[in-house]
Amino acid sequence: MISVEEALRLVLAHCPTPTTEFILLAEATGRTLAQDVFADRDLPPFDRVTMDGIAVQAEIFQQGIREFTVAGVQAAGAPALSLQDSSHCLEVMTGAVLPGNTNAVVPYEQCDIKDGTATVHALEVRLGQNIHRQGTDATAGDTLVKKGNSITPAVVGILASVGLAEVEALRQPTIAICSTGDELVDVDQTPLPHQIRKSNVHMLAAELQAENIKTNLFHLPDEPEAMFTALREILKSHEVLLLSGAVSKGKFDFLPQVLARLQLNLVFHSIAQKPGKPMLFGTLPDGKTVFGFPGNPVSTFVCYQLYFRPWLQQHQGLPAKKATGVLAESISFKPNLTYHVPVTLSLENGMLNARPIQGSGSGDLTSLLPAQGLLSLPSDKVEFLAGERFPVTLFSFAL
Ligand code: AMP
Ligand code: MG
After folding, report:
1. Residue 107: CB atoms within 10 Å
2. Ligand nearest to the backbone CA of 300
3. β-strand pairing of 48-49 with 131-132
4. Cα-trace Rg, the chain
5. From the CB of 296, is ligand 1 less than 6 Å away?
């Protein structure tokens, strides 16, 4: 049995570096950029009008002129007009190119237009006012976003504005989520008295959906030969196996022996933690990765959060997320195991206050309903006092 810290270190040490692929902009949110993004033109690409109004020469106003003959209208999306007579004006719309021979925009709110003449009642008109000058934000060729960044909605906006309908991103792993257990039936089935519906695999698929990763779900019966055949088939088209159940010491926990037949390099089996003690982790000769989570729903979820998510984070080139929570009420925990206690979280004076949730153990999925994270209490202590600080793992929908 290894420590929580050692288990995480080993999981991350066995995380492969992904290749890259081109993806459509519509599918890019949440992915990691694998290319630098350059400005293809100046930003903005022309002197852009920022208010609806009239474009004038500021000097003419400064000479005391207040009435300007309207010589035309410059709409957004129309090629640039040019003011022929410096004492005239052109009506201009937000987003239009600033007409030639003008250098200030007076908003409609500061003038009246009647019978083809605009009377300006502004107190001052400054050179360049209400104009977003060409190249102010970036010059053509500038790097706007560096590779390795996460593609946020703002990055999507930049990608669109520089014309990248497709973008190079880190490839996501292909993931199979497999339940095990002859007591399990599908969601749409009515279980017999001795059966239950599968919940773990749907919970994991939902988590991965939140990461914008599609998964495939499978079920393996509690029978070694059938397990072996099914896994061999699943591995043909998936790089990562998230397995739930069948890794403990029960008579029907066949996964360790089946995985050994598939030549798993077993990196560890069992972590000094509660819940999730029987978790196993290993790699296959072709570089594929296997996470074997214990089947109790809370254990599966906790192991996913504590080991798989950091693995995925690293796989996608993103920095590890670390946070500290303040224990809101004292608790004691005797076993010599790290205790990952589900907590609700609230921000108080800039600190994350973590309040333990009472549940009836790792089979109690309802105890996860209010949980926003896990507070990890170290194995070398028994009493944990309110106000003490411990590492906290935030769930994806945490705050
Ligand atoms: P195991 O790790 O296979 O011994 O399973 C431990 C407990 O988790 C048993 O009570 C199982 O019925 C339950 N369990 C296993 N897999 C699932 C699943 N996919 N959904 C819900 N409960 C499960
Ligand atoms: Mg089982």
Report:
1. 16
2. 1
3. antiparallel
4. 31
5. yes
- Among candidates 148, 165, 160, which has minimal Cα distance to 39? 160
Residue 246, ligand 1, Cβ within 6 A? yes
pLDDT means over runs of 10, the chain (399 residues): 98 96 96 98 98 98 98 98 98 98 98 98 98 98 97 97 98 98 97 97 96 95 98 98 97 98 98 98 98 97 98 94 95 97 94 93 91 97 98 87
Ligand 2 centroid from CA 300, angstroms: 12
Residue 106 tokens read as: 């007076």
Q: Cα separation of 340 and 373, whole Å?
A: 9
For the chain, the distance separating the N- and C-terminal CA atoms, rounded to the nearest angstrom, is: 33
Task: Name the pairing type of β-strands 331-332 and 383-384.
Answer: antiparallel
The total of other beta-carbon atoms located within 10 Å of residue 214's CB is: 10
User: 96 is written with which tokens?
Assistant: 């239009």
CA atoms of 290 and 303, how far apart (whole Å): 13
Q: Please identify, by atom number, the ligand 1 atom nearest to the C-alpha of residue 198.
A: 20
Query: Which pTM does this prediction carry?
Result: 0.90
DSSP state for residue 88 in the 8-state scheme: -
Q: How many residues does the chain have?
A: 399
* Geometric angle at alpha carbon 380, from 375 and 381, rounded to 5°: 70
- The finding on whether 179 has its CB within 6 A of some atom of ligand 1 is yes
Token output for 263 = 């030549």
Helix (H) or strand (E) run with residue 104 in it: strand 104-107
pLDDT number for residue 321: 87
